[in-house]
Design brief:
Pfam family, one: Exonuc_VII_S
InterPro entries: Exonuc_VII_S, Exonuc_VII_ssu_sf
CATH class: Mainly Alpha
Number of strands: 0
Radius of gyration: 18 Å
Subcellular location: Cytoplasm
Distance between the termini: 49 Å
CATH architecture: Orthogonal Bundle
GO molecular function: exodeoxyribonuclease VII activity
Family: Belongs to the XseB family.
Structural class: mainly alpha
């Protein structure tokens, strides 16, 4: 479980670690399931963070466009 709010960069770094560990196949099935679950949560966090950034950029672009028209 992702307990604390990670930065986007930290979440991506942890996702890379999880992916590499799972690809190596060096952990038990139980640990693989735990890592997969953590990865899914991190992926959701990253998706939401990117969505919020996209929304903010869209809003700022509209403000800039409105300012240029005035």
């Amino acid at each position: 479980m992702v307990k604390k709010k990670l930065s986007f960069e930290d979440a991506m770094a942890r996702l890379r670690e999880i992916t590499e560990t799972l690809e190596r196949g060096s952990v038990t099935l139980e640990e693989s399931v735990k890592l997969f679950s953590e990865g899914a949560e991190l992926s959701q966090l990253c998706y939401e963070t990117l969505g919020a950034a996209e929304q903010k950029i869209t809003e700022l672009s509209k403000i800039c466009a409105d300012t240029e028209e005035a």
